[in-house]
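Review form for a predicted model. The reviewer records the input and the model, then writes brief findings.
Reviewer: anonymous (R2)
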Amino acid sequence: MPTLMEKPRVVSIKFAEPHDKSVTEALDMITCEYPPQTGGIADYSREIAAGLSRAGIPVRIWAPGNEDRTARFSSRVTVVRSLGRFGLPSLVRTARKMRRAGAGRRLLLQWEPVGYGFLSVNVLFCLWIAWQALWGAQLIVMFHETFLSYSKKTPRRFVAATLQRLMAFLLVQSARKVFVSTESGAAALGRLSLTRTEVQHLPVFSNIDSADDIRSARIHRSDFVSEGETLVGHFGRYNTQTEALVIPTITALLRRSKSIHVLFAGECSEIYRGVLIEAHPEFRHRVHSAGLCTPAEVSSVFAACDFMFQPYPDGITTRRSTAMAALANGCFFVSNKGTASEDLWHRTAAVHLLRGRTPEEQAGEMDSIARSPERIARGAEEAAEFYRHNFSVERTLTALNACLQSL
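Model under review:
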């Protein structure tokens, strides 16, 4: 697999030949969410299943729920919703279903601690996965998140962080191959491995395709700004830590320039707009909400905005699907450097990393960007290419296909 920032060779994943058992044998994917459930893991799992099935690999999805029937999404993708809420009865039931179906020899787990319930410390589930590996499953784990830090000095946080490390340890020891969405995560999981399990950095990809209807996006933009005004966007889920990064800086930015408007989109949109205009009603006509959006609507938001403001509590990293969505849609964005940020973010014009520490300093940087259409255009021009070279779904499918070939 090409390294980040290295231009990849063109790879075509071959469809399986009937006699090639190593390729045609089904892959069983365990995931904490799958459409019609919403969320990043659901979208990620759907794209992986679809991509591998196109390459001739049958995929069985094992998802939460208590349905008896098996849903067939295509000739090579089936979904079994038997994992309930990941408690013991559901795990036992699923193990029996797997045995009856002859499933579980090649097992891909989509892992993030919070997704599997039990207040994000479901040690029982990880023991169940380890048991599957002991009984012959060749386990691949994709860590979307690893474990909590010990940064908050509270007993509850200490217990949760410790148990999440135990869960990660169990999964790493049981796996034949481990993928992880960030460089810092790869280093952390490498230190947990006693068996020298291979750990590979594999950034997430965008679940949102780029907008095809540019005319529609321009009409969308005219709903919020007039000619000569700047529209700054923010897209994401609601998070109190992210709110603390977004609202003060946006407030300072609106104070600095009367020609700037802000558009919030996604789960956070109504909350952020409400918080901001409640404190500053004078900005009511310059703060907008697109609400919860379909993928096509989100793509139109990216196309309508001049640039996006996407800060994160631990800084920009290669696991941030909202950042990937902006890049995939050719959208320049502003973000922040944090403890988990990778070096590659310093090597592209597609992203501006804030240097200022206070909201006023950061608003000053963003105001300067808003006054430089050339800077925005240069970043937007590089964004899609930067995404394609480093984060596209094809890179992920190539890595998974190579891993499956080696099992």
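Findings: Residues 214-390 form a domain with the Rossmann fold fold (CATH 3.40.50.2000).
Further findings: The longest helix spans residues 155-174.
Recommendation: see findings above.
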